[in-house]
Each structure stands twice: as structure tokens, then as C-alpha cells.
Amino acid sequence: MRLLLDTHVVLWAATDSPRLTPQIRALLQSTENTLVVSAATHWEISIKNSLARPDFDVDVVALRSGLQANGYVDLPITAAHAAVLAGLPDLHRDPFDRMLVAQALSEGLTLVTADSRILDYPVSTIKV
Predict the structure, then answer these.
(1) Where is the PIN domain (predicted)?
(2) N or C terminus of the chain with fewer C-beta within 10 Å?
């Protein structure tokens, strides 16, 4: 299965967070699955870092390097993704999450998320 990971899932995986359920851990560790990380995730993390919030400090370069070393696949944002995004119903206000939905729909990916608002879109999801 090709899994597109929501930003929080990427961060939880990178930090081995206890928020990852045993089911999700098994999916992430299975060699049968391709783990995909969107450029939107790295973009979102970079923006959150620029806000200098004391509760958020992630080295996006080190994160990406670690993800790549562990076999995660980068997914760039394309004009085709933006076209799908333009046709999405306005069910979610977060532009990064909307892009992830558009990418999952465009690429035939299953989106792994804890965000229940994403479940309202007609996209294949796995709820954390």
C-alpha cells in the first residue's frame, strides 16, 4: 500500500511517539508499504519553525535526511495537485491538509491521519 503521511504522523514517526497506535506502527514498519511524505509537510514544518513557537522546534533538513535514510519517498507538489485542490469542497480550512487530500486523490494514495476533518473528503484514509 502507498501511504501518504499527514504532518503530525511524520513527526510522531520520527520521534517514535506513543501516539502511534500498534496498527499504525505495523503499517509504518511493513516493507510491503511505501511511505510517502509531501513537500507540503516540509513546508508546513518550516513555516511553524519560522513562528519561533517555544513548543515547536524541528530541524526540517535533519528530518528530511532521516526520513530518506529510512526509505520514505518525497512527493513534490505539482500543478495537477493544485487543480484537484481547486475542486475540493471547503470542508477543511488548513491549506496543508487540503493539499495532502488533493495529492492523495491525484496519486491514488491512502492518507494516514489523526485529523477527523479529513475523513469528510472522498479520499482513502487510515485514521490514527
Answers:
(1) 4-121
(2) N
